[in-house]
Amino acid sequence: MKGGKPVMVEFIPEKKTKDLTIINNDQSKADGKKYDKLYYRVPDVVDLKISLGSEKLFNSRKLIYQFGEVVQLPANYIIGK
Questions:
Q1: DSSP assignment, residue 19?
Q2: Does residue 3 sit within a domain?
Q3: Contact, 10 vs 52, CB < 8 A?
């Protein structure tokens, strides 16, 4: 078996979308209207670092959907009504 160096990939989310809401359940109940909802995961900014042993190979900021929050939008939001 040959030796090697570990490759480390780090994702550090900035959590800029944690407080993001478009429509929540309380808003739809408060005005007495029922909304059809569209669920959408907003991508969050992530600091991405890749290193080989102690050597940094890559460092960048990227938008990654898996780290973002899921928001509720009205079903007709895409249509613009």
A1: T
A2: no
A3: no
Indicate whether 2 belongs to any domain.
no
13 assigned to some structural domain: no
pTM for the predicted model, two decimal places: 0.62
Answer whether 67's CB lies under 8 Å from 42's CB.
no
Read off the tokens for 55: 């050597």
**Cα-Cα-Cα-Cα dihedral sign, residues 47, 48, 52, 57:** negative
Joined together, the tokens standing for residue 21 give 């809401």
Per-residue model confidence as pLDDT tens digits over 32-79: 556 577 788 899 999 999 999 889 999 999 999 999 988 887 776 666
- For residue 51, give the 3-state DSSP assignment: strand
d(CA 9, CA 56): 10
Residue 79 within a domain: no
Q: Which domain holds residue 50?
A: 18-74
37's tokens: 């909802």
